[in-house]
Every structure is written in structure tokens, then in C-alpha cells.
Write a structure and sequence with these properties.
single chain; 250 residues; alpha/beta; Rossmann fold; three-stranded antiparallel sheet; 8 helices; 9 strands; 34% helix; globular; disordered C terminus
């Protein structure tokens, strides 16, 4: 569904990204992992055509792209239903607002305005908006931030289901190895200065093998261990071995 090659990205006369190349196929959930500030969001912006100041190439075969940014970016003067309808092109089928909101556990929220919702609710509405276009490519930036363990796991299942049932390619940026191992089938790890693609690894289905992989990655990359330690103070979502894989990935 997409391929990306970044030969070089310069910001303020400093190389920030070098020699990054990967592709994502339909049905894959790929997590782009890296510490905060390394350039994960910049990679997504390049992919989406929002940042063209780099040496490299992006190719997207997908016809419909759903996007969820770090901030919900809901238009404050529109209610949730209108925010969801806004992204659907002319001539495309109208989205089933109720069904979309049910998928992200926001039943009855169609008439709410952004100011009436918590950040967690707004982020779920933003995911519903990304799904409203029936995407075959879904680009997500820290999609489970500010969500508790139960809700994060539920939305991980929604993302995985989109990949499995609709054959969509999913690329999600996160700094949290627990989240990545819970939902992704493959990990891309950014590290170094300038940031490069340090590893591209498949996520095994077996819980023991996933635990071993997490141990190996956190031993190799200090930022992954730090992120896991930070999650430990806020609930079980940091530990993918404490939770089953999303139903659609089993």
C-alpha cells in the first residue's frame, strides 16, 4: 500500500533523518517506534505529503487514506457527526455515524461538540473520523495516548480489525513498546542521531516469543525500557504479555 525512502532530512542546518526505507503491505499493522522527538511524526508528515522538504521518495497505492494526528484536530464549531462527515468525499457513501462511534465506544456522542468531551473521548472521535473514509491505508500518530488500559486495548482491537477485515495497511507511530507489541505485526525502530532505521522486526504471535522479543529490544534500546518503566506507574497497558493479542490478530 505504501513505500517510503528518506535519504536525508535537514532541519535548522542539522541532519535529523537519514537512510530510512520501508514498505507496508495491505493487512499489516506496522509500528514506528522511537523516543519522543526523534522524528516519528516527521516521517508520517512526509508520508502524507505535509512535509516535502527532504531527499527521498514516497509512493502510495492506497485510494483512501485515514489519518489520526497526535492532537484530535476536531473542528470546534462542528459536532462529532459533522466532523466525521467532513472527511468523506463527494460521491462516496455517507458513513454510518452511529456504527463508527459504537466501534470506538462513543455511543450517543454524535451531537456532542469537542468542548463537551474529555481528551480521551476526542481522541476516540478522531479515530472514528479516520475510519469514516473506509481507509485502505490508516496512518496513526500515538493513537492510544491518554487512554486507560481497557480502552487502549479495545481500540487496538479496532485498528487490527481494520487491517484484517478490510485489508488495510496500518502505520502507527508510538514510543511505547508495550503498545506496539500488543497491536502490531511488525516493528520499525528509529534510533541514532541523525535517526536511521535501526531495526525492522516481525512480532511473533506466541506470548513467550513476544516476551523474549521485548526483553531483547529493551536491552538493546534504552528508550524502550524507559517508556515501559513510565507505563508501569500508570497501569497494565505497558505490559503486552499481561493482555491477549487483539481478537482480529489471533
Amino acid at each position: 500500500m505504501l513505500s517510503l525512502r528518506i535519504d536525508r532530512k535537514v532541519f535548522a542546518s542539522r541532519d535529523v533523518l537519514r537512510d530510512i526505507e520501508f514498505a507496508v503491505r495491505g493487512g499489516e499493522v506496522v509500528a514506528l517506534l522511537g523516543p519522543s522527538g526523534i522524528g516519528k511524526s516527521t516521517v508520517l508528515r512526509m508520508l502524507l505529503g505535509l512535509d516535502r522538504a527532504y531527499d527521498g521518495q514516497v509512493r502510495i497505492a492506497a485510494r483512501r487514506v485515514g489519518v489520526m494526528f497526535q492532537e484530535p484536530c476536531l473542528l470546534p464549531w462542528l459536532d462529532v457527526a459533522a466532523n466525521l462527515r467532513l472527511v468523506v468525499g463527494r460521491g462516496d457513501p455517507a458513513p454510518d455515524i452511529g456504527a463508527l462511534l459504537d466501534r470506538v465506544q462513543l455511543p450517543g456522542a454524535a451531537a456532542l461538540f469537542p468542548r463537551q468531551m474529555s481528551l480521551g473521548m476526542a481522541r476516540r472521535a478522531a479515530l472514528a473520523r479516520a475510519l469514516a473514509v473506509s481507509p485502505d491505508l490508516l496512518v496513526l500518530d500515538e493513537p492510544f495516548a491518554s487512554l486507560d488500559a481497557r480502552m487502549g486495548a479495545a481500540l487496538a482491537d479496532v485498528v487490527a480489525e481494520q487491517a484484517r477485515a478490510a485489508g488495510a495497511a496500518v502505520l502507527m507511530a508510538t514510543h511505547d513498546v508495550g503498545q506496539a507489541l500488543t497491536v502490531a505485526s511488525r516493528l520499525l525502530i528509529l534510533a541514532g542521531e541523525p535517526a536511521t532505521l535501526a531495526d525492522d522486526v516481525a512480532v511473533p504471535e506466541d506470548p513467550g516469543a513476544r516476551a523474549a522479543l521485548r526483553g531483547a529490544l529493551t536491552a538493546r534500546f534504552a528508550f524502550l525500557a524507559a517508556a515501559a518503566d513510565g507505563r508501569a506507574a500508570h497501569g497494565p497497558w505497558h505490559d503486552p504479555m499481561a493482555q491477549p493479542l487483539p481478537r482480529s490478530l489471533r
